[in-house]
Amino acid sequence: MAPIPMLSADPAFDALKRWVADTTGMSFLLSRDDTVGHAVQQRMQIHGLTSVAHYLRWLDSADGSEEAQDLIAELTIGETYFFRFRAQWTAFVERIIPDILDRNRTLRRLHLWCAGCSSGPEPYTAAILLQEQFQHRLEGWDLRILGTDINRQFLHLARQARYSDWAFRATPDEVRTRCFTRVGRSWELRPAYRQVVSFQQHNLVRGAFPPDPALMPDLIFCRNVFIYFDGATNRRVIRQFRDILADDGWLLVGHAESDLSLFDGFDCLALADTTLYRKSTHAPERRRRDQPRPVLARPVLARPVPPPARPVLPKAVSPARSAAPAVARPPVQTGAEPTPPESVDGTDRYRLVLHQLAAEADGDAARLALDWLAEDQMNPWPHLALAAVHSHRGEDDKAERSLRDALYLDRTFLLAHYELGCRLARRGAGDEARRSFRTVQSLCLRLGPAVPVPGAAPLTAGDLDSAAALQLNRLSPP
Q1: Residue 289 domain-assigned?
Q2: Is the four-CA dihedral 142, 147, 150, 153 of positive or negative sign?
Q3: Which residue, 15, 90, 108, 250, could crosslink 219 as a Cys pair with Cβ 3.0–4.6 Å?
Q4: CA dihedral 41, 42, 43, 48 (to 10 degrees)
Q5: DSSP 171-233
Q6: Which residues have a Cβ under 8 Å from the Cβ of 114 and sit 6 or more positions away?
Q7: How far is 271 from 144, CA to CA, in rounded Å?
Q8: What is the pLDDT of residue 293?
């Protein structure tokens, strides 16, 4: 879409974009004249308006609330499907819900909040699993699942509970047949699974927490929402989530939302294929950025030495997924000397470093990364791990250098390309950031959408491609 000169040249257009960003939290729209311009032009034409300033005054008035909802509906994104991020649903069944049931056996209460639920597959997936796996244990319980979204059109679709075949691309056929009824070209969820789910419009930026005063959430889903917000908004929303969660309550976020610094007041539980966050009774104080830290004695990468040959990325292949449940690794004791498992690949050691950072043990994380780098300097993974340590400490230049070292060794290293693109975008290097994200998209295309990203399973190439597309959309056009 090309920008609309009439609107983008209007003196009130920047104020209108600011109103949209402040209202929805989607700060990336400030740099998207084309996206906002087309939506605004469409709405103004419907009402026969020609003045952006007039339209903005209307949106910001009491009489403009309905029109504001219609404009927001044009700008929000609703990509979702049933059983998305299967590893998280495995953890939901095997770890999270059993924990809550044991903890609340006297209260006999289970409240779930799905924030940013779009058209409803996420809360309905939770309802299906609770009905099929825990029906007898939940008899007589106060069971509530609330789905909320800023887009009321999505909520209208959610209440209808009818979905196309595409919404079941991660759902076993037998589950769809058992839980849904075929209605024309759509599938409608059976009433038994819908009765505990309700929907309500809610704005995470401006709304009350919780959206319903009667809701006392034991688990909050907020997946693939934080990628649309800026850092300050994310921290505020996550802090509000923590304030209303039950003691030891759980938070599930998207796999692309991996900035550990956002989750103050939560314990990070790293499982085999996903990461969970649990409200900490005693939130650790984060070290201030201006406090002195030990200097990392970092080996210098010998640039003249050619890197070892790397295999070309395979063509799209549907990975064989094991039916075995994800198993959590034993928790790392931060008071003890951390050591990597005896027989692990790079991804496991990288996860161990991230686990230490999540536990605020950045000294241990740094030692693990540096020891690994000393052992295997020509491996890109320890450079990525060291970049995570530097990033956690706010050492942005060093983090970027470590990412570039990783890419010098492996030009197909997807995670390093994506992290470098995010870092370049944050410091305003738009052209370089675009190149990084376009490289991510090219590599994801070669992998195929269903193939797990190396080192980030169950995040797929399709998921990372979508995240890169969003990052490109946030950047101003070149």
Answers
A1: no
A2: negative
A3: 250
A4: 80
A5: S-HHHHHHHEEEETTEEEE-HHHHTTEEEEE--TTTS-SSSSTT---SEEEE-S-GGGS-HHH
A6: 122, 123, 126, 145, 146, 147, 148, 220, 221
A7: 27
A8: 47
Q: Is 305 left (phi over 0), alpha (psi -120 to 50) or beta?
A: beta
**Which residues touch 456 (CB under 8 Å, ≥6 apart)?**
255, 414, 415, 464
Distances from the Cα of 243 to the Cα of 249, 347, 472, angstroms: 10, 34, 33
Are residues 376 and 419 both part of a single domain?
Answer: yes
pTM over 0.70: no
52 pLDDT above the threshold of 80: yes
Q: Which of 157, 159, 144 is nearest to 196 (CA)?
A: 144
Same structural domain for residues 49 and 15?
Answer: yes
Cβ atoms of residues 376 and 406 within 8 Å: no
What would the pLDDT profile of 225-259 be if each residue is shown by its tens digit?
Answer: 988 888 899 999 999 999 999 999 999 998 777 67
Distance of CA 459 to the CA centre of its chain: 10
Query: Is residue 403 within a helix (H) or strand (E), and if so which, with residue range?
Result: helix 396-409
Q: What is the pLDDT of residues 439-456, one digit of tens each?
A: 999 899 888 888 888 777
pLDDT band at 319, cuts 50/70/90?
Answer: very low
Q: Are 44 and 193 in the same domain?
A: no
What are residue 183's phi and psi, to 5 degrees? -130, 100
Instruction: Give the single-character DSSP code of 343.
Output: S
Please tell me whether residues 369 and 275 are part of one structural domain: no
Is the bond preceding residue 299 a cis peptide, omega within 30 degrees? no
Q: What CATH code is carried by the domain that includes residue 456?
A: 1.25.40.10
Percentage helix, strand, coil for the chain under 3-state DSSP, each rounded to 5: 50, 10, 40
Which of residues 257, 279, 301 is at a domain's end?
279
Q: In which domain, by residue range, is 394 found?
A: 358-474
Cβ atoms of 418 and 227 within 8 Å: the answer is no
Separation between Cα atoms, residue 6 and residue 25, nearest integer Å: 25
Query: Cis peptide before 210, with omega less than 30 degrees from 0?
Result: yes
Q: Is the pLDDT of residue 372 over 50?
A: yes
C-beta of residue 264 within 8 angstroms of C-beta of residue 287: no
Rounded distance between C-alpha atoms, residue 211 and residue 78, angstroms:
20
Pair 91, 154 in one domain:
yes
Three-state secondary-structure class, residue 277: strand
> Do residues 338 and 332 lie in contact, with contact meaning Cβ atoms separated by under 8 Å?
yes
